[in-house]
Amino acid sequence: HTSLTDNKSETKKKGKKNDRKKLFGGVIPTPESKPKQRTVDEIRAQYRKDSPDLTSAHAAALDARNKLLERQEKLERIAQNSEELANGAQDFASMAAELKKRMKHRKWWQL
């Protein structure tokens, strides 16, 4: 049982080490090591490369942005429609009140 637990913890450590390696570009920093000074061109070249992860992330971000814009347009249309409905309801209420006033003193046989 302990060897199984030890094996799991070693696997977990290796996974974390690999994650750190990926994060720091293949080099695991130590407290004694100083970061390498990179040029602007090196940084730009690193972030320009079309890796599948970056491309899919970029595509996902663009897709999310487009959906957000569509939702915004849809909400604007809904707000405009609700405003028109509110105005129509207000007009109907005022016409109904006016009709009620006119018909208040009339008898039913005079209609």
Q: Your description of this structure?
A:
- The protein has 111 residues and is mainly α.
- The chain has two domains: 7-32; 38-100.
- The protein has three helices and no strands.
- The longest helix has 52 residues, at 52-103.
- It is elongated.
- This is V-SNARE coiled-coil homology domain-containing protein.
- One of its GO terms (cellular component) is cytoplasm.
- It is found in: Cytoplasm.
Compact overview of the structure:
By secondary structure, the chain is an all-alpha fold. The chain is built from three helices and no strands.
Descriptive terms for the model:
3 helices; 111 residues; mainly alpha; 2 domains; elongated
Q: Give the overall pLDDT as a whole number.
A: 80
Tell me the major beta sheet. none
Q: Helical content, roughly?
A: over 70%
* Helical stretch tally: 3
Given helix and strand content, the structural type is: mainly alpha
Number of distinct beta strands: 0
Number of domains: 2
Q: What is the first-to-last residue Cα distance?
A: 97 Å
Q: Which residue ranges are poorly predicted, with pLDDT under 50 across at least 5 consecutive positions?
A: none
Subcellular location: Cytoplasm
Keywords: Coiled coil, Cytoplasm
InterPro entries: V_SNARE_CC
Protein name: V-SNARE coiled-coil homology domain-containing protein
